[in-house]
Amino acid sequence: MSTTFLPPGLLTLDAEALYAELRRGVAALMTPRTCLAGIVSGGQWLAERLQADLEQDLGRPVTAGAITSALHRDDFARRGLGGGQTQLPFDIDGADVLLLDDVLYTGRTIRAVVNELFDYGRPARVRLAVLVDRGGRELPVSADFSAARVALPAHQLLALARQGNDGRGRLTFRIDEAAA
Fold first, then answer.
1. Which end of the chain has less Cβ packing within 10 Å, N or C?
2. Which of 133, 161, 129 is nearest to 148 (CA)?
3. Residues 78/35, Cβ–Cβ less than 8 Å
4. pTM of the shown model
5. Which of 130, 134, 100 is nearest to 117 (CA)?
């Protein structure tokens, strides 16, 4: 894993190469009992794609679902429900859950997702894998695996975008200026 410093307006991340690295890292974290839970929406896209790829790599079924942070966010009044719902097609009690997200930043989304997860039961273990860790943590949260680390000014947002709706669409990153 490398750290890349990106100047404003310049983006040199190859999302497809990072996905390949994430696929390798997640495969190393998988056990026969591991279930994937992609955080809506970028993490959900990753979980959907990883499910198919890991089934091929591992030669066995991989269970994957989606989880939202919407109801447990500390900025719910400002953000609202957003899109997507939690859909976990496995029993949470005693499960080995691997959360997937596109970008780890402050840790607040992960905190909200863990609260949502515990609404469904008590997992034996919860781990986190992300495509990009951009630092800037406000809560004590870290990823068990990240494909890359980047540094961006706080006023910039890094987000994963997907071209195509077939679950195998090309992944790209975009940098946007944060709303004031």
1. C
2. 133
3. no
4. 0.86
5. 100
